[in-house]
Amino acid sequence: MRTKDPSYRAILELGTFLRNTVGSDQDIPPAALSPDGQLGPLLDRVYQQNRWFTPESCLFALRYWGEMLRERALDSWLAQYADTGRHPKKVALILAGNIPLVGLHDVLCVLLTGNQALIKCASNDRLLLPFLTDKLAGYEPGLNERIHYTDGTLKGYDAVIATGSNNTSRYFEYYFSGKPHIIRRNRHGIAVLNGAESPTELQGLATDIFGYFGLGCRSVSKLFVPKSFDFDPVFEAFFAFKEVVNHQKYANNYDYNKAVYLMSGSQMLDNGFLLLKEDSGYGSPIGTLFYETYDSREALQSKLAEAEDQLQCVVGGSWLDGSIPFGKAQWPELSNYADGVDTVEFLLKISND
After folding, report:
1. What is the C-alpha to C-alpha distance for residues 41 and 161, in angstroms, rounded to an integer?
2. Is the same domain home to 138 and 219?
3. Would you state the pLDDT for residue 164?
4. Which of 187, 282, 289, 331 could make an SS bond with 312 (beta carbons 3.0 to 4.6 A apart)?
5. Positions of the chain with pLDDT lower than 70, given as ranges
6. 3-class SS of residue 116
7. Residue 342: helix, strand or coil by DSSP?
8. What's the N-to-C CA distance of the chain in angstroms?
């Protein structure tokens, strides 16, 4: 599907704007101010609204989208689909607010399939996404009629894509049972090590763990390591992120979890800004990284297959089937859908009914 929707060109223009404004992962300018001077003050307001959304975290997200919104990437993504929808629908998007621009992919999917977006942002994330959709509408004024925001009760929608926790997902499933829907739940990122990782790979792993303070569903929250694994090289790679403990919210979580583990007598490793704890769970608290040992690659692959519905991504070396490279947890391809559910396919189906 080389989409004929007017949003396609607007999205390419947005990608160009982002690359010209904030650079790319290979070209990081010392300051990130747009030519019209809007972006710097905007990021300050974003940070005042949500202290997890530091300017650095926002710039990381903006650079990612600048790289993704290139013609080659868009065409490669859309080529697998037959056509755009013939009967546009209004799709309600209930967005998470855990990391900056976490809902932009859903918005783009809705627009590129010819549908309308009715967007309900998280209460602590109401600035950055509207700024970008305003840019889109500036490039293609017709999008003003297809992008709507609401703070109240959702009304007049034909389908729903909602992202929340395992608890809220049960409410969403009940409340939206009468409409076509995608309901997303908690998932986690993990990494698998075999002890032969290079310093560069371990530095990439550190980015996968500390990027967005570990708040993303693709953030690595657990390691699988061989028995008698030497953690010293891992901690050396983590040292580049030691300043994370100076972030008040992160420090509060780190201190709280450390106190809880100490009082309960739990064994852990502590490098002064991250707690490493052996645990069978997949979702570690902020400031903590779980780990678990494995006996063989075959046994590990079997275990991960059983936990597939809990995992958003698996980071590892080329020796591990289905893994992505170290340092790429927060750089998914456009075709890497949350929870493994093809959003474009869903939207094309409802708009062709």
Report:
1. 31
2. no
3. 85
4. 187
5. 1-4, 24-37, 84-85
6. strand
7. coil
8. 18
| Residue 229 structural domain | 188-315
At 56 the pLDDT is 93
Q: Are residues 87 and 140 in the same domain?
A: yes
H helices within the chain, ranges in order?
7-22, 39-49, 55-68, 71-78, 104-112, 128-139, 166-175, 199-210, 232-238, 248-264, 297-306, 343-352
* Same domain? 125 vs 11: yes
- Please tell me whether residue 325 adopts helix, strand or coil conformation: coil
Distance CA 145, CA 99 (A): 27
193 and 175 together in one domain: no
Cα distance between residue 226 and residue 56, in whole Å: 34
Residue 277, phi then psi, degrees to nearest 5: -130, 130
Query: Same domain, yes or no, for 194 and 207?
Result: yes
Residue among 252, 307, 308 at smallest CA distance from 285: 252
Please give the pLDDT value at position 165.
83
* CA–CA distance, 178 with 28 (Å, rounded to integer): 47
Does this model's pTM top 0.85? yes
Q: What's the structural domain count of the chain? A: 2
Same domain, 247 and 345: no
